[in-house]
Amino acid sequence: MSEWQRISPPEAHRHLAKRNAVVLGAIGLALTGVSISLGHVPQAIFLLVFIAVAGVVMALSALSGIQAGPSGLRLRRLLTVRELPWSEVADVTTAPAQHLGADTSYTALWIVTAADERIQTQVVRYDHPQQGERVSTRRWLKLGPTEFTDVVQALRDVRQAQEQPGSAEPAQ
Questions:
Q1: Residue 77 belongs to what H/E stretch?
Q2: Is the pTM of this model over 0.70?
Q3: Which of 41, 51, 86, 111 holds its CA 20 to 30 A away from the CA of 75?
Q4: Which tens digits make up the pLDDT trace of 54-69?
Q5: 85-94 burial, b for 16+ CB within 10 Å, e for fewer?
């Protein structure tokens, strides 16, 4: 494998982010046009700047997720990218997602390093949160139970393929 392979999120989530960006852009341009036609140029400029910043955030969100490559894993978040060589990836596991240091009712995908560091990824299984739980999940990539299981298994398969002697490429 010569390039990074996207493990998560599935393509459907990326299309949703792209659709949201297009809708936001269309609404923003319409509002800007109305503002200019009414003579509200400063408000139109503010709207254009706001739409541009929101568009960049949406584009970066569409890029976030987990990627696997020949050298290891790449964990992309909104503003950060962390690469882990395969030699440092000890385990791929699931455990309760944590928010502000406390467990939630969501199940997250975790990477355990050789140094026994546990890294919570953005990927969480979204069933139905416990009633009354008010955890902001905007920073998480919420997947249904089947999609979540598929992502966990795909990541484990790629890791296992890297551990096999003589394996040059992970299974696709």
A1: none
A2: no
A3: 51
A4: 878 777 777 778 888 8
A5: ebeebeebee
